[in-house]
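Help needed: design a sequence for this.
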């Protein structure tokens, strides 16, 4: 096994098998989502985002950072392909308001024998924690969340999350392969457009087996088995402490002053 995989496994605290199986996929996916936070600290600080394998390894693995969808799923795609999985890189339309927006989210389709899985370690808003079997109309529980897939004649598969008694759409995708240049264009828009939420507000989030921990602006939100605790972050030092305590991020070289100046 090469050093890239060895270091990645250590980064996500993975000690399981490396064969091409649904068990391996599940283990890798859950270890990544539970240990590597979804964060936009570089985007918010207007730092360039690079999606090549070496840059993603340096940031997420070596520098112990997180990233947003193009970084997280980009790295995960490289890992799965190196292990021998059949991976199709996808672009999805995130649901905003009452409609689906442009294709600005990266997800993966993984095929194992006769099964197809939606794989996504990089959707920060209550995204899936484990692979989701691409089977329409069935509830699939993952820790404290329940998801399902439906189909739409225009947008393809629609991922929904169950909130109370209702299902809310998250994003839509078609199983059509996209390529590095497609992700470069979408990532550039997402990381530079003044209308992008990633540019407007700084955040860091990751799921836990009991819920989710999120930093949004100057607010810390911890959800545990449906109970929500919120507190206001007073200064930069506290923000850095929370990044280390809750997300195990090496944030010493991350500038958070812009967020507090904006507030």
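Sure. Designed sequence:
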């Amino acid at each position: 096994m090469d050093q890239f995989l060895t270091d990645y496994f250590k980064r996500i605290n993975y000690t399981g098998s490396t064969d091409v199986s649904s068990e391996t996929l599940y283990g890798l996916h859950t270890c990544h989502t539970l240990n590597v936070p979804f964060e936009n600290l570089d985007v918010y600080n207007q730092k360039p985002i690079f999606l090549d394998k070496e840059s993603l390894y340096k940031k997420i693995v070596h520098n112990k950072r997180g990233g947003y969808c193009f970084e997280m799923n980009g790295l995960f795609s490289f890992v799965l392909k190196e292990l021998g999985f059949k991976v199709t890189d996808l672009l999805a339309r995130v649901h905003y308001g009452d409609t689906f927006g442009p294709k600005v989210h990266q997800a993966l389709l993984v095929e194992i024998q006769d099964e197809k899985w939606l794989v996504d370690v990089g959707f920060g808003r209550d995204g899936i924690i484990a692979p989701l079997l691409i089977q329409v109309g069935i509830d699939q529980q993952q820790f404290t969340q329940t998801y399902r897939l439906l189909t739409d004649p225009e947008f393809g598969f629609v991922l929904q999350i169950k909130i109370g008694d209702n299902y809310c759409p998250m994003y839509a995708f078609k199983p059509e392969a996209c390529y590095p240049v497609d992700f470069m264009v979408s990532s550039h828009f997402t990381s530079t457009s003044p209308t992008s939420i990633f540019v407007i507000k700084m955040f860091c989030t990751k799921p836990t087996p009991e819920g989710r921990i999120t930093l949004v602006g100057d607010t810390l939100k911890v959800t545990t088995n449906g109970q929500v605790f919120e507190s206001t972050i007073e200064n930069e030092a506290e923000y850095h402490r929370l990044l280390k305590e809750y997300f195990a991020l090496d944030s010493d070289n991350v500038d958070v002053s812009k967020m507090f100046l904006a507030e």
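The domain at 3-198 is CATH 3.30.2140.20 (Arylamine N-acetyltransferase fold).
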